[in-house]
Write a structure and sequence with these properties.
162 residues
């Protein structure tokens, strides 16, 4: 069952491949202004996986020259929220219920957030009137390590209460 977001993404993928990343990023950042301010880049969107990147540029750096903690959280929330949003019916609202980030070591350079949903997760989202689940997200840096462990719990509820 396609929703508005998945239909828009499908249209983007019908255009020349060289425009995909730019258009997917514009689609997302037109709705999430903070992501535009941070210059978050959306690399890939599907119903099962989303990949976003955040470059280690001055606008998102902390006092030691790495990506600020909030920037890393933005990347994780964005990736998980997009993949979740690709599957929530238009009759429902996606809501971030909680996010836990554990900073295990210093980040090196740019970061990539990859969020995924299983077929079982998607079936749950599309068949239940309301609920919540953890959307797995991996944050990796230029060294290939995952310096941050994160857990994003998303919920869905009907837009109109019965």
């Amino acid at each position: 069952m396609a929703n508005k977001l998945s239909k828009l993404v499908s249209k983007v993928y019908k255009l020349p491949k060289s425009t995909h990343e730019f258009l997917l990023t514009k689609l997302f950042t037109s709705q999430v202004k903070f992501a535009a301010t941070a210059k978050l880049k959306v690399n890939k969107i599907s119903n099962q996986q989303v990949v976003v990147t955040l470059a280690n540029k001055k606008r998102v750096q902390n006092h030691i020259g790495g990506i600020h903690a909030v920037g890393a959280g933005l990347a994780a929330e964005s990736a998980s929220g997009i993949v979740f949003g690709m599957n929530v019916p238009d009759s429902h609202l996606p809501l971030l219920k909680s996010m836990t980030l554990e900073y295990n070591k210093r980040m090196q350079g740019d970061i990539t957030a990859t969020a995924s949903l299983s077929e079982q997760d998607i079936a749950l989202i599309t068949s239940q009137e309301k609920g919540d689940l953890v959307v797995p997200v991996t944050l990796s840096d230029e060294s290939g390590d995952s310096p941050i462990s994160c857990e994003m719990r998303w919920a869905w509820v009907a837009k109109k209460r019965h």
